[in-house]
């Protein structure tokens, strides 16, 4: 018996499984052939709570276990899904007072056949998003599904390197623009570990694991030749603003772009393309201090 196994009563008077809270994995895939988005669901075994109903793979967290680790572990224990192939996008926690449930969102670039791997799973199936409501759903999952459905997206943070470098306390950046952008690139890698305090109405994640794109121009272009894990550096062949506006406009169906710049004209161009825009201060408050 794991140390997290057991029932817990929350402040709302409900009884939940998981002495230290629980976590689950909401993973999706968009088929490039038919264009449909599908989520991986588990049909619960008949003998357990909510027997025969459908929901996400989930379970109780162990002592001091991270919710992401718990969600991936439970899914791997209950199914044959290779969770190492899941690209994490964010987390969202429902706090019931004394007990909480964290949903971990992610995407896969393919849709493997997934089989049961424990007595807790009757079946596993990739279900089209628009058909989820037609299933007999596990009641807690049914209550959360409308919110979960709106969170199946990847946050892409597009950074105006020239503008952000000029806004941070990086002395002498105007003399060494390449060096200043390289330092910014290295600091942006920290966002891959989790980004909090997202603007309202963007994506409903408390913690996001974004794709970060740093756009460099002019003398800083050579920074694109020096890759860094967690950050994609793109060199603008001409105007950096033109490239940023183009990136903001040409995103896929499951992408939510957030442009970081204080340039008013660029802000207007990006917002007209449907992207959200925020100033450098917000970003700099979330980077390591130098």
Structure overview:
The structure is a single chain. It contains seven helices and 15 strands. The chain is of the alpha/beta class. It has two domains: 143 residues, Nucleoside Triphosphate Pyrophosphohydrolase (Alpha-Beta Complex); 131 residues, 3-Layer(aba) Sandwich (Rossmann fold), CATH 3.40.50. The strands form three sheets. Strands 3, 4, 5, 6, 7, 8, 9 and 11 form an eight-stranded mixed sheet that branches. β7 and β8 form a beta hairpin. The mean pLDDT is 90. One of its GO terms (molecular function) is hydrolase activity. Keywords: Hydrolase. InterPro entries: NUDIX_hydrolase-like_dom_sf (IPR015797), NUDIX_hydrolase_CS (IPR020084), NUDIX_hydrolase_dom (IPR000086). It holds the Pfam family NUDIX. This is 8-oxo-dGTP pyrophosphatase MutT (NUDIX family).
Summarize the structure.
Helices cover 23% and strands 28% of the residues.
Mean pLDDT: 90
CATH topology descriptor of the largest domain: Nucleoside Triphosphate Pyrophosphohydrolase
**Number of helical segments?**
7
Strand composition percent: 25-35%
Coarse shape:
elongated
Biggest sheet details: 8 strands, mixed
Total of domains: 2
Please tell me how large the radius of gyration is. Answer: 21 Å
H/E series, N to C?
EEEEEEHEEEHEHHEEEHEHEH
* Architecture per CATH nomenclature, i.e. the level-2 architecture of the largest domain: Alpha-Beta Complex
Helix content: 10-25%
Low-confidence stretches: none
**Tally of extended strands?**
15
Tell me the span between the first and last alpha carbons. 46 Å
What structural class is derived from the secondary structure elements?
Answer: alpha/beta
């Amino acid at each position: 018996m794991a140390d997290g196994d057991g029932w817990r009563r929350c402040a709302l008077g409900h009884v939940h499984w998981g002495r230290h809270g629980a976590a689950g994995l909401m993973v999706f895939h968009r088929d490039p052939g038919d264009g449909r988005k599908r989520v991986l669901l588990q049909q619960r075994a008949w003998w357990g709570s909510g027997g025969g109903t459908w929901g996400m793979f989930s379970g109780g967290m162990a002592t001091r276990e991270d919710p992401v680790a718990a969600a991936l572990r439970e899914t791997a224990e209950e199914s044959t899904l290779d969770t190492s192939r899941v690209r994490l996008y964010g987390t969202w926690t429902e706090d019931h007072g004394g007990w909480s449930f964290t949903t971990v969102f992610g995407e896969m670039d393919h849709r493997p056949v997934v089989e049961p791997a424990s007595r807790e799973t009757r079946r596993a199936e990739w279900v089209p998003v628009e058909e989820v409501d037609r299933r007999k759903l596990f009641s807690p999952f049914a209550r959360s599904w409308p919110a979960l459905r709106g969170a199946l997206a990847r946050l892409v943070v597009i950074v105006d390197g020239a503008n952000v470098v000029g806004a941070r306390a990086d002395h002498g950046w105007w003399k060494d623009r390449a060096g200043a952008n390289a330092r910014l690139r290295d600091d942006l890698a920290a966002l891959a570990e989790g980004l909090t305090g997202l603007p309202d109405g963007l994506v409903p994640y408390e913690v996001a694991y974004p794709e970060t794109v740093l756009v460099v121009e002019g003398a800083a272009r050579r920074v694109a030749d020096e890759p860094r894990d967690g950050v994609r550096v793109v060199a603008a062949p001409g105007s950096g603003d033109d490239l940023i506006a183009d990136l903001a406009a040409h995103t896929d169906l499951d992408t939510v772009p957030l442009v970081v710049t204080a340039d008013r004209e660029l802000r207007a161009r990006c917002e007209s393309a449907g992207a959200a825009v925020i100033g450098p201060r917000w970003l700099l408050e979330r980077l390591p201090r130098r």
